[in-house]
Amino acid sequence: MVISIFFFLLVSTLHTPSAQQTNSNISLGSSLTPTGTHSSWLSRSGLYAFGFYKEADGYAVGIFLAGFPEKTMVWTALRDNPQRVVPSNTTLLLSSDGRLLLRPTQGQDMYIANLDQPASSASMLDSGNFVLYNSDQQIIWQSFEHPTNTLLPGQRLSNGAELVSSASETDHSKGIFRLAMQGDGNLVQYADDNPRTTSMAYWASGTNGVGNNVTLNLDDGGYLYLLNSSSVLINLTTGGYPKKGMMYLMRIDVDGIFRLYAHSSDQKGNWSVLWESSTDKCDPKGLCGLNGFCTMMDREPLCRCIPGFDFVDPGKWSLGCERYFTAPSCKDKEANVMMPLPSTWEDHSYKVLS
């Protein structure tokens, strides 16, 4: 009890009342602005927040760990919308007609939640789940059922759902890597451009064929597992980590590998990796794009282009490489030589041309 009170007080000191709103019950007509008095709605303990955060030259909406010195994003709104990064004169609103939306001063409203019925209130829960209620106080929408790149304790990845990596560490729109909970019971990782066949997966749980009610689950002790109805199919982590004084989350990272992270609740130290789907950072297919290949350099992946090619964008390896020579130059026999290229062999062609 003493520890819990101390943690609550510690978290509370990390927020300034002028920038946050601590009431977890959000009524119709409530609004936020990126640079106004209220920029986010806090959970009751002040640990999680739903609202604006800085991205690129503007602001985006998401859920983040507000109780930490650095904002750790756990959910991002409107990832498919190219207009999701908005200027400072935009309003986030739970409208009087029960819709959760972004309203720019110019342009059309952008709806964050697709609702079959109007909401009557909302709440940012201490679990990290943002929920909308109807007039009977039943949940009609929740962020836990629409994950982006992260699973929190108590959250599950259900049949047919997937996690998608972010485009970069600073751009939280969709990246190219997916962790999919397939209908056949298999948990599989693909790159966006690859066909969803077994040969093109770069990681799989090997549970295909066990049924269509398998879910990926994370509990508050860092136990990550696949559940089929009421029985555990496979343990991805052994669990057994301390529950008190620790926080856990699972995320598919920008590099295509999904990892289990831990952080002490007292805010000391950094996030530490407890488990990862692969220790070889060159495993994710598609990391280097077309005409590129991956090599390891000091335990970090390094993308290279095949001879005669340069990166489309040196800052975005996944865009691949494009040729800088002309087709007629290929007839110059003296300029063409055979050379070995390490780390380029694949079991299947990247693309078959007719």
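Next protein, fold it too.
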Amino acid sequence: MCRKMQAFLKGAGVIGIKPAKEKAAAGTSGENKKQKSVPWVEKYRPKCISEVAFQEEVVAVLKKSLEGADLPNLLFYGPPGTGKTSTILAAARELFGPELYRKRILELNASDERGIQVVREKVKSFAKLTVAGSRSDGKTAPPFKIIILDEADSMTNAAQAALRRTMERESKTTRFCLICNYISRIIEPLTSRCSKFRFKPLTDSIQEKRLLDICEKENVQCRSEVVPSEIIDSHLAACHSSSFEKLETVVKNMVNEGYAATQLINQLHDVIIDKEDLNDQQKSAITLKLAEVDKCLADGADEYLQMIALSAVIMQQFTQSV
């Protein structure tokens, strides 16, 4: 679902773009300023901590840290799409203001740049830079920079060990924010040097409300469903039918239409737990497979194959209950 949300939010890219002739006319006359179109996912990203949705505990603790214009090293972990990156960026904006924000932040995607060489070059070089500049609004700018390592659980152990040494040496002038889905993949020497925050999965109602608010501001008509429950119903109906061909069609449609398997797994879990025609042993077998599939998906496994494997287990348990 997170993918579908991003695709939906990025749909704003075509808004505000003028035809080539109009652009030329505006440029020569000087009467109109060319406006750069901004994807909605960026346009409506939280600008301050208070705008972060559904993470009350995290927001409350970070607000206290921001009041003292200081931050510890941070470790944000939880499912994708829960606001981890948006939260640290919002905190950085509040700390540094618009003038210093770009100068004081280094953001890296650790899944793409996860080797020890990146830590030695990019991270180490940025951490050694001196802190300079002041805020135009008169507020005190904290005397440190922030390095954000997204998907830090994809870093090699050697890179994590090198990062630990950099964190120790540059503790006076640099703060680190590690962002990951699974905290168990971060080595203990790193986790012990960070304040840990778990981000909760967003409920469908929260995501639906946010999308509808954006649609209203952009004057876009939108259906109220975020992740249609029909796909869950059709999936379970196919499992009940004991027809692998029908089940395979449902899964293919789900993958082709861009539904995020991780979100569907969360919904399936809730539905399975509430089903009265399954006993506890059958529910345990299905939820165990749900956990295995969720782990495999986080490791980059193929969504179609994982959902087929999950569906086979669900079909087996439903067959036993008949």
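About the second fold: Strands lie at 74-77, 105-109, 145-150, 174-180, 195-198.
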